[in-house]
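TL;DR need C-alpha cells for one chain.
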Amino acid sequence: MQRSHRFRTRLTVRPRPTYSGSEYEKKQPFDVITDSGLFHVFDDEERPVYVNSLRSALRPGGMHYLMCFSDRQPGDLGPRRVSQAELRAAFVDGWSIRSIDPAKFAVTIDDNGAQAWLARIERL
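>> reply
TL;DR here they are.
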C-alpha cells in the first residue's frame, strides 16, 4: 500500500512470540494485532474460538487489522472465500467494525493478485 505522507507516532513495540489459539502473557495485552491470511482457514465452528482468543489478547480500544481471501475472487482454486457478512457476523459482541475494504493478496500464481478484504476492527 502506498502512502503519500508519513505518519509520526510514539509507539512502543513489545515483540513477543504468540501463536493462534495458544496461551500467552496476559499481563500486557496488545494494542494492535494483525492477521494476514489466517482467518479464512478457520471453519464456522472454529471462528468463535479465534475471535475469543483475539478478545483476550487485545486491550479495549485496541485495533485488529485482518486481511482474508474474498468471495469476490473468481473460481474455486485456493483457500476458502470469505464474505463481508461472514466478517460482520464473526465480530459482533464486543467489537466495532470500522471498515472493510477491497484489497489484494500478492500471489505467485496470478500476476493480478487474489481478491481480499482488509478489515479494521476495534475491540470495545
